[in-house]
Task: structure prediction
Amino acid sequence: MSDSLTVAKHRKNLQQLRAETEAAIAVMQATYDELDPEEAASDVGAGEDEGGSEGDLTRFERDRLRTRIVEEGLFLEVIDAAEERAKGKSWKTCARCGKPIGDARLEALPATDVCVVCKADRSNW
Ligand SMILES: [Zn+2]
Result:
């Protein structure tokens, strides 16, 4: 394959990733705002009392969303850093070992700054 990844294409990929991440955050935030533990608890109050489990579930779901929103927010910072790196010359170079990250890997994970070998002890990217 001769169509190697250009910096213009890479920037576009990053923009798209940012848009997707922001959209995902917006959806989760909206869901989070809709989940009201007090309301869920009072809804269930009319029927059999099962120890307010509905409200607990809602709280659990809110906590889960909260965590995801924070994680996605951190990922936006990673995208920021990747966009910053794309302004320089070393955006295709692994930040840890200095070897090429590889076009295919950068296409698939535009926000990454390490090669697949160094990625082993990182979490998601
Ligand atoms: Zn590396």
Observations:
- The first helix runs from residue 7 to 34.
- The helical segments are 7-34, 37-45, 53-85, 103-108.
- Residues 94, 96-97, 99, 114-115, 117-118 surround zinc ion (CB under 6 Å).
- The mean pLDDT is 88.
